[in-house]
Structure formats: C-alpha cells, structure tokens
Design a protein that fits this description.
The structure holds two protein chains of two kinds. By secondary structure, chain A is an alpha/beta fold. Chain A has helices spanning 39-45, 70-83, 96-107, 141-145, 149-157, 165-186, 218-227, 243-246, 248-256, and strands at 2-9, 12-19, 24-28, 49-53, 90-94, 114-118, 204-210, 232-236. Chain A has an eight-stranded mixed sheet with strand order 1-2-4-3-5-6-7-8, sandwiched between helices. Chain A is globular and about 50 Å long. Chain B has helices at residues 18-21, 36-55, 77-87, 107-119, 133-139, 144-163, 202-211, 222-239, 262-280, 296-300, 317-322, 331-345, 361-379; strands at residues 2-6, 60-63, 92-95, 124-127, 168-171, 176-180, 194-198, 214-217, 250-258, 326-329, 349-353. The chains are: A alpha/beta, B alpha/beta.
Chain lengths: 259, 422
C-alpha cells in the first residue's frame, strides 16, 4: 500500500510517497516523476520501507523559485531526509534522481553508505552526447526511453488525450512545472560538475543500466563505474532508460546487492 | 501613427524542398545552405532597403535579433543599427531588440545602446525582448525556468547604468560588478523609449504597464488572429488602472504587399508570401517552447506558441489574405485593412514587414514606395487625440551631425593649418 503524504521543509511543502516495511530506502525519481500506482514502487514497498519524495514542481510538492541549481537541490533533498527523520537510508536514484543521489553522496560522503544509481544522468561524454530531452516531441520519446518502443508508447499514452483542451492545458502546465524544474539541472547539458566531486563518494555503490539505454547510453555506466571506487555495474538486457519499468525484477535484484 | 519599416533579413535561397528535407529553419538549420558570398550581397541589399525607407519618410527603420535562424540573419542587430546610423538621417532606428538575458554582462547592452543613441543623435528606440525559446534556450543555452529572473536582473542593471550618475556596485544573482559606470551615456534622457516584444505572457503585460514601455506583438499570423491577445493586454491596462490607454502603448507587426491592383498583388507577391510561410516559418515543434520557458500563468491563459504550427503550408494566397495573415492588394485595399487593424487592435506603432521572404530588392522598393506614397499619408492621423504622446518614441537632437562627403572634395587640412593641442 503506497500512500501520498506531505511534510514541511525550509524550502516549502514536499509531497512524498511512502509504503512497505523493512530497511529504509529513499527513491529519487527521474525527470518524468513517479506515480503511486507504479509497479516499481510496489516492488520497492514489498521489501523496503520506501520513501519517494517529489522534487519541487512535481506532484503536490511546492514550486520554489529559490531552488535554482545543483547545490540547492542537493541540500534540499537532505532537508527532506531530515524532515522524514531518516538517517543513512539506502539511497536509490533513477536518471535525474540518480544525478541528485550521486551528488548527495559526493557532497556528504559520510552520510550515505549504500547507493544505487539507475541510468543516472550527471556526466557528459563528448563522443556520446545525451539526447536533448527538452526538444524531443512526445511522439519521439518512447524510442529514446524504452527498449521496446511500442510497449513504451502504450505505457506513456495511457490516459492521455492530446486533442482534448481540457486535458491539454493541465498537461502543459504539469510539463512546464516538472521539466522546468528538471531543466535547472539538466538544461541544456545534463552536467553540473559531478565529475569534479564524484571521487568523494564512499558509499557501497551499485550501478544499474539497461543495455539499450538510448538516453544515457552504456558508456556512461562505464564512466560512473570508473569514477566511483568499488562500484559494481549490473547491466540489464532488454531494457532501455526506463529499466525500472521494463525489467523491475532485475533492478530489485541489483538493489538487493547493497545488503 | 508611427510606421517602422522592418526587415527580418531572411535568407532568400532556401531550396524548394526545404520543408521536406530539413526539420527546422531555426536552431539546427543545415549550415551548408548558407553561402557567405551570396550573404555579402544580401546584407548589402537589406541595408539598402532600410536606407531607402528612410528617404521615403517612414518614421522608423527596424531590425531585431535572432540566432541560428534562416529567416533572421541578425545575430547582432546592433551591428546593423550602427551601419544605419551613418546612411539614414531622419528615421528612428528601432532595435527590437537586444535579448538582454543573453548578454554577459548585460551592461554591454547599456553601452551599445548608448553608443547607438549618441551616434544617431538620439534616434534610438530600444527593445528588450525576453527572446524566443529557440534563441534564448536552444541556441544560447539559458535555463528555461531561470530565463525570466535573469532577464529581470539584466533590465534592472541596464536602467540603473543609464540613470545613476555615479559609479555603483551591482550585486546580482547572475551578475556581480563592483564598478558600474558606463561611458558614453545615452543622449535621450533619462533613456531611450523602450518597446518590449511579447507573445502573450501576462507577466510581460504588467512589466510594460509598470514601466511605461510599449508592448509589441510581433506576430506572423496577422491582425485578425492578434485580436484576442492584444485585447488581453488592453484588459490588463484597464485592470491595472494605467493612467491612459494610449494606442502608443502597443505595437503590432504586419506583413504587407502593395501593388496597383489586388490581382496584381497576387501575381507579383504570392510566391514570396509562400516562401515565407512555407519555408521560413518551418520550425521544428520541439524547439518552439522549452518546458519552463513560459510561466504556468501564461500557459493557463491558453495562449499557444506561434511557432511549430502545422497550418502554414496549406494556406493559399486567398487564405492568407482573407485570414489577415497578410494585408495585400491595391493601395485602397491596403489602406482599408490597415484602418481595421489600427482601430481594431488600438495600436499606434506599426512594424511593417514590407520585405517578405525571398523578395528581390527592386520589387520590395516598388511595394515600399506605393505604401509610402499612397497608403501611409491616409493613415498618419488615426489617433489625433494622442498626437502629443511622445513617451514611446525617440526625441532626436534638432541639429545632428552628418557624415562628411567622401571623395576628392573631402580633404583634410595641411599640417601647417592645424592647431597643435596645448
């Protein structure tokens, strides 16, 4: 049972999803957000006491114009953990959330001891540029995000009717709030200096990557592995950037390696 | 009325199959389509046309800023404005404008506009656009959700740089300068009139009202479709209790073609209109509006972006004319439509897009001359009750220096005639 709750932080109200029991695990969502009914949330809750806070502008989390850059988001997320009363939870981040999780572990390496980065953003390799998420049209996204673009498109267009103005305007508002926030960290190049700090990470780290990730492709997995001492890489076949959707079981097994 | 002859400076040689073979005229346009030798000729022609407009008595000559754009060859409008200060003599030089969030530090704009104002003898009308998402976000890398905050800071810095009479420290979030002290300062006091190009952002309406700036809607879809947007502006002017609803608080850009008859206009110009609407406005929809660029408040008004739309290619000449995208025809037809436009939108500043797409110079001069001689005189005094409203237009020096003639008649004194400095 996943429930949505709200806590106060110095930078405004934060909505988070909570469920399950077991070791405390914090999941930081990607640029697309996360929903309470996602099978990945259910899988996490089956084994952990999971908390998934929404970034400002996502879900019911308040927009905050004072959160502008990587340091602001990193410290804000620590404030969220404090507000939740969590001490050294297992920290798991997907994509943008992976970038934030890596940053948290690098900035305060003694505060994070178990880290799972799934298809994490945050590094940049000139010979393998990450696609420009912000100029992709909705119809172009499935092929970039999923191993199986057809199935992915079906997942993404569930409950979506772009022709209906009653749907379209709230959709555009949500998109502007969410990707407006994500753009503070990802636009125009999803790199904010992590490469200069990543060596500070002390956590036991598992990296999870879909073999056919076309958003943050395989060379980035190698780059993270090379930069984080002792990091273990779990490559997942038949999965794209949305590996948490396409191969949930494999991702759960990888997280379990953190103990 | 103030009529500005405006040139977007389009590239005239986009291939016929541009729409089919290329995804966008903007941001990632194929650079192999640009030929600098042809470009040399094109810039020269376009400056000729702006100078020609000055000789015909247009109130202003206008230019703007775009980047990586096949229909707007002016990454730096200030370079064009500088060229115009020398070979125009009467018209306002309307730079609409500099995207101030893109200049680092933005006092560069304060300095260059001050230079232009002084060089032109006070003929500068300055524009401060936020900039399109294509230019600002996708070409110049500004973070969409922070663009407006950065713009606001740049604006504050520029106005202070123009108005404060002692050096000051500016501790901004995006700009930290210990000694702001621009030299030269503007000729017009406290600073040149400012026009703000906007596309329906409600925040921009308020910004114009609060600062007594003119709101310019630079649309390509014409005056009929602009009605709702400008009505939104005028409603806001009323709601905010602005002291007046002077039509000079607003400007509008309109594509226009003039010929002897309506039929002649279609024969002469339809190819150029189609070139513009089909090829020049072929913008990849993914570049039209980076998420976070427009505010939530603006999106909620339902104002959708004018770029990345699908309807342009299917428009016939008749659709373009009937839909008011373009005003075209005999001087009488054009005059009537402009009266509808001016009264309907309540605007005092008109930016005339008389050069369109791949129109050659001589044809553009023909259309321009007809407008100047047979249309413009009838529209001059549409707003007699506001004839003394000078807040939104430049105030040049009465006596201005002129370029010295070139050639054998221009010879310096001999050394013997010169007086040494003390």
């Amino acid at each position: 049972m996943i429930t949505a709750k709200t806590i106060q932080t110095p930078k405004g109200a934060v909505e988070y999803l909570e469920g399950g029991s077991g070791p405390a695990l914090v999941f930081l969502h990607g640029a697309g957000g996360i929903t309470a009914d996602s099978p990945f949330m259910a899988a996490l809750a089956a084994k952990y006491h999971v908390y998934a806070p929404f970034l400002p502008g996502y879900g019911e989390s308040e927009d905050n114009p004072d959160i502008r850059d990587m340091l602001d988001v990193t410290l804000h997320t620590y404030d969220v953990l404090d507000a939740l009363g969590l001490h050294k939870p297992i920290l798991v981040g997907h994509s943008l959330g992976g970038m934030i999780a890596a940053e948290m572990a690098a900035v305060a390496p003694n505060d994070i001891d178990r880290l799972c980065l799934i298809a994490a953003a945050g590094l940049w390799i000139d010979s393998h540029p990450v696609p420009d998420l912000f100029s992709l049209l909705p119809r172009e996204l499935p092929a970039v995000l999923f191993h199986d673009a057809v199935a992915g498109a079906a997942t993404m267009t569930r409950n979506v009717n772009m022709q209906d103005p009653a749907f379209l305007i709230p959709f555009l508002v949500r998109n502007a709030r969410q990707l407006g926030m994500a753009g503070k960290l990802l636009f125009p190049i999803p790199e904010r200096g992590l490469k200069d700090r990543i060596h500070r990470i002390k956590a036991k780290t598992v990296l999870v990557w879909g073999d056919s990730d076309r958003m943050v492709p395989a060379p980035y997995a190698q780059a993270f592995k090379a930069a984080i001492k002792g990091a273990e890489l779990v490559s997942v076949p038949e999965a794209g950037h949305m590996v948490i959707v396409e191969q949930t079981t494999a991702v759960m097994a990888a997280i379990a390696r953190l103990g | 009325m103030k009529f500005t002859w405006f040139n977007l400076m389009p590239w005239p040689d986009l291939p016929e199959d541009f729409r089919e073979k290329h995804r966008s005229v903007w941001v990632d346009i194929d650079s192999n389509l640009y030929d600098p030798v042809r470009g040399h000729e094109v810039y020269n022609d376009y400056l000729d046309l702006l100078e020609y407009a000055d000789t015909l008595g247009f109130d202003g000559v206008g230019i703007n800023e775009h980047h990586q754009n096949g229909y707007g060859l002016m990454p730096s409008p200030n370079l064009m404005a500088a060229a115009l200060t020398r070979r125009t003599s009467k018209a306002a030089i309307v730079v609409l404008g500099n995207s101030i969030a893109l200049y680092n530090p933005p006092i560069r704009v304060a300095e260059e506009f001050a230079m232009l104002d002084v060089m032109s003898g006070g003929r500068l009308v300055a524009g401060f656009p936020v900039g399109t998402s294509m230019d600002t976000n996708f070409c110049y890398g500004q973070i969409p959700a922070l663009t407006r905050e950065k713009y606001a800071e740049a604006h504050d810095m520029i106005i202070r740089a123009w108005t404060e009479d002692k050096p000051f420290a500016f501790n901004g979030r995006y700009n930290k300068l210990r000694h702001v002290n621009i030299w030269p300062k503007t000729l017009q006091k406290p600073f040149p009139p400012i026009h703000i190009p906007g596309g329906g952002s409600v925040e921009t309406y308020d910004f114009c009202i609060d600062n007594t700036y003119s709101y310019s809607y630079l649309s390509f879809s014409g005056y009929i479709r602009a009605k709702a947007l400008l009505q939104g502006y005028w409603d806001q002017v009323a709601k905010r209790n602005a002291p007046d609803a002077s039509p000079y608080r607003a400007g509008f850009a309109q594509t226009v073609f003039v010929a002897e008859t309506d039929a002649e206009a279609e024969r002469l110009y339809s190819g150029h209109a189609h070139y513009f609407y089909n090829r020049c406005l072929h913008v990849y929809a993914g570049f039209a509006d980076a998420p976070g660029y427009r505010t939530v408040k603006t999106i909620q008004t339902g104002a959708l972006n004018q770029y990345g739309r699908a309807e342009y290619p299917s428009l016939t000449w008749k659709d373009l004319v009937d839909g008011g995208y373009i005003i075209a025809g005999s001087p009488e037809t054009v005059r009537q439509r402009f009266e509808e436009l001016i009264k309907g939108l309540n605007v005092g500043n008109i930016f005339l897009l008389l050069h369109v797409g791949n129109m050659p110079k001589d044809l553009c001069m023909y259309s321009t001359k007809l407008f100047a001689e047979k249309v413009l005189p009838h529209l001059r005094n549409m707003w007699p009750e506001y004839k003394d409203d000078h807040r939104f237009w430049c105030s040049p020096l009465a006596e201005r220096a002129l370029p010295a003639p070139l050639g054998p008649t221009f010879a310096p004194n001999t050394p013997a005639e010169m007086v040494p400095a003390k």
